[in-house]
């Protein structure tokens, strides 16, 4: 029962994290708070990978719902081994989603924003391996959208942080579910053999 309440608390924690990932990804489509850049396809291609909307957002709702509904599963099937096995699979889905979000966000952060420069629309920091992050004087290479570098760095850093938390939560439930699914039946068999 303790493992069920632990899983439920992890499921509750995933919902706001997934919501924040979706919001952060959506905001990346509107640099400077304007829709014109997405309409004219002047946003970085990485936002179209939907790392926050899909990976860190909608996909994370699967493990969240499974973790929250484990008690109902136990009530219907009479054993929590079945529920724990389901939570292990759901945690693997969550690990994949959060890993995807983290990976794409990290690559997008390293490549830098897509912006208008003196040489036209391009990604001016694409080849410098993320060095631009520590050289704020170079951020003025992006003429507009205004503050696009700060916008991207902030939102992508938020996505990195949120996906890391999601990964840790899913990993905790993966370990907890695995231990409970494997060890509990063994413990029950030992108790039965001792009582017999």
From TrEMBL:
Transmembrane segments: 12-31, 46-70, 82-110, 153-175
Subcellular location: Membrane
Membrane topology (UniProt): Multi-pass membrane protein
InterPro entries to which the protein is assigned, alphabetical: L6_membrane
GO terms under cellular component: membrane
Principal location class: membrane
Keywords from the UniProt entry: Membrane, Transmembrane, Transmembrane helix
Membrane as UniProt keyword: yes
PANTHER family, alphabetized: TRANSMEMBRANE 4 L6 FAMILY MEMBER 1, TRANSMEMBRANE 4 L6 FAMILY MEMBER 1-RELATED
Recorded family membership: Belongs to the L6 tetraspanin family.
Name used for this protein in its record: Transmembrane 4 L6 family member 1
Lineage: Eukaryota, Metazoa, Chordata, Craniata, Vertebrata
